[in-house]
């Protein structure tokens, strides 16, 4: 996955199951299971099939988010 693809995914407020598929290299079923696992611990949105990007970062303990978002220069 290129940086541009990753940047496009994380520029949104939420991730979909398809986004998790691309990010983690999983099948649809496994990505859906992973989303449910994350949403069990963190669920800011409360919308089925969508995961807030901050929930993703918290689940994986990602504190340095600068490398995931587009810089506004």
What's this entry about, in short?
This protein is mostly helical and 73 residues long. It is 51% helix and 8% strand.
Structure description:
This protein has 73 residues and is mostly helical. The protein has four helices and two strands; from the N terminus they run H-E-H-H-E-H. It has helices at residues 3-10, 17-24, 28-41, 53-59, and strands spanning 14-16, 50-52. A two-stranded antiparallel sheet has the order 1-2. Helix 2 crosses helix 3.
Secondary-structure-based class equals: mainly alpha
- Given as residue ranges, the uncertain stretches (5+ residues, pLDDT < 50) are none
Shape: globular
Roughly what percent helix? Answer: 40-55%
- Biggest sheet, in brief? 2 strands, antiparallel
The quaternary organization reads as single chain
N-C termini distance: 24 Å
Order of helices and strands: HEHHEH
């Amino acid at each position: 996955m290129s940086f541009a693809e990753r940047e496009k995914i994380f520029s949104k407020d939420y991730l979909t199951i398809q986004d998790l598929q691309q990010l983690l290299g999983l099948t649809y079923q496994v990505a859906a299971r992973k989303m449910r696992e994350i949403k069990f611990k963190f669920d800011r949105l409360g919308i089925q099939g969508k995961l807030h990007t901050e929930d993703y970062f918290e689940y994986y303990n990602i504190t340095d988010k600068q490398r995931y978002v587009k810089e506004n220069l």
